[in-house]
Design a protein that fits this description.
mainly beta, 13-stranded antiparallel sheet, six-stranded antiparallel beta barrel, 6 helices, 13% helix, elongated, disordered C terminus
Length: 428
């Protein structure tokens, strides 16, 4: 019995060692790195897959258009869905679904642009007191109108700009009638009433609200899709400077802008591009959408940056690698230049999300000129291995050399460029 017990103990120890060691052997480690699904673009082959050694073969499923080149790469002729199968001694041990998308190419930007947004209705950005016969009060605040609300209608008339408000307020005030107001707050819409008060000093009727109907600023063009003329820029939402809430837009315009100077960034203080532009002149396109991933619309004509003027392929989030990359941006005049950066980290994202990358400026010339990432650089396209992978979006306040980037696929999605348009695979 003692002999048998020893055998059992030795066998148990060996089994335990095997269970501890096997997961750390290269073939097993490689097995766990094999993805369940690979998504890629047409004409970007051969694609590499993890190899499990000479004893494991990779085959395409029967009647698929995928073709295994060897044990670690494959090729697909057409867009569509395919499948790769790992086999050992003829026994399947792993299946990988392959989704091949139509080739999508965009022209990277880098140009400095001026932006003007026309709000949907007029935006309430503050309250003020009106000195009337019955003391000081704010009719707008008393009517439960809050900062960040959007005034859509007054007395049944659609409000598009601030000039639409004054005649209605004056008319209602003179008639001693309340103003019926339609207000949008977030996703909700409601109606309220307020009574204009005659300001004793100005002799004009007031409603006690500060309002705004437009916003302007500068940023950087990210990409242009030549077939549809759709573009994306900035890489982040434009928010009102007072309410800090995203601006709901009625329409907007982008124009060429000229960088006149740079205020360098320091730890704790972001830098800024100083630029000039004219909304009435040099218009290059419209703005139809303001989203968490940037501003989008259509350009009137194709734009050029002098560096990459031909369409380039894009990279999906899982294809972006840590390591060297380039950005395109302007630091003087209208000249687009290329600068070195490092992609410190990149998160493969299965659904749209901002802050997908962390990047660091490494180019000595750009660091000398700007101190790193500055305001106005948002939207600068990031290029890696001959592909457009994303755009610069935010700077780290305590480290202006570093900041966040957004993956290009989410910007394309918000621009209305359907990168997931797949064709049905024909059996061969």
């Amino acid at each position: 019995m003692k002999y048998i017990d020893k055998i059992r103990i030795i066998a148990g120890v060996l089994l335990l060692l095997g269970l501890l060691i096997v997961p750390f052997t290269p073939p097993i480690q490689n097995y766990f790195t094999i993805p369940d699904k690979i998504i890629t673009f047409q004409n970007q082959f051969p694609m590499k897959v993890p190899s499990l050694g000479k004893s494991v073969q990779v085959h395409a499923a029967v009647n698929d258009n995928a073709e295994a080149v060897n044990a670690s790469s494959f090729h697909v002729e057409e867009p569509g869905d395919s499948q790769l199968i790992y086999t050992m001694a003829g026994v399947p041990i792993k299946k990988v679904n392959v989704s091949v998308l139509k080739d999508v190419k965009v022209i990277p930007g880098g140009q400095s642009i001026g932006v003007q947004l026309q709000t949907l209705g007029v935006l309430v950005v503050g309250h003020h007191l009106v000195n009337g016969d019955n003391g000081t009060l704010s009719p707008g605040e008393d009517a439960n109108i809050k900062v960040g609300d959007v005034i859509m209608e007054m007395n049944g008339k659609e409000i598009e700009e601030m000039n639409d408000v004054k005649p209605i307020v004056e008319e209602s005030g003179k008639k001693s009638m309340p103003v019926k107001i339609k207000v949008k707050r977030g996703k909700e819409t409601f109606t309220t009433e307020l009574s204009p008060v005659l300001d004793k000093k100005e002799s004009e009727y007031r409603i006690g609200l500060y309002i705004r109907d437009s916003a302007a600023g500068i940023g950087t063009m990210t990409f242009f899709e030549p077939k549809s003329k759709k573009y994306g820029a900035l890489g982040h939402v434009i928010s009102d400077m007072d309410t800090k809430k995203p601006i709901e837009i009625h329409d907007g315009t982008i124009v060429r802008s000229t960088v006149t100077s740079i205020q360098k960034g320091n730890n704790g203080t972001p830098g800024e591009k100083q630029a000039k532009f004219s909304i009435k002149e040099n218009k290059i396109g419209t703005i139809t959408k303001n989203s968490p991933f940037g501003i989008f619309g259509q350009l009137d004509d194709q734009i050029r940056n002098g560096k990459y003027d031909k369409p380039m392929p894009i990279a999906l989030s899982h294809e972006v690698k840590e390591g060297p990359a380039k950005i395109l941006t302007v630091i003087d005049g209208e000249k687009v230049e290329e600068y070195d950066v490092e992609i410190v980290s990149s998160v493969p994202q299965k659904s749209p999300a901002t802050k997908g990358m962390v990047i660091q400026i490494t180019d000595p010339k750009l660091l000398e000129a700007t101190g790193g990432i500055v305001q106005g650089m948002s939207g600068s396209p990031i290029i890696q291995n001959g592909k457009v992978v994303g755009a610069v979006t935010h700077v780290f306040v305590n480290d202006p050399t570093s900041g966040y980037g957004v993956h290009i696929e989410w910007m394309l999605q918000d621009a209305g460029v359907d990168i997931y348009d797949k064709e049905t695979v024909k059996a061969s």
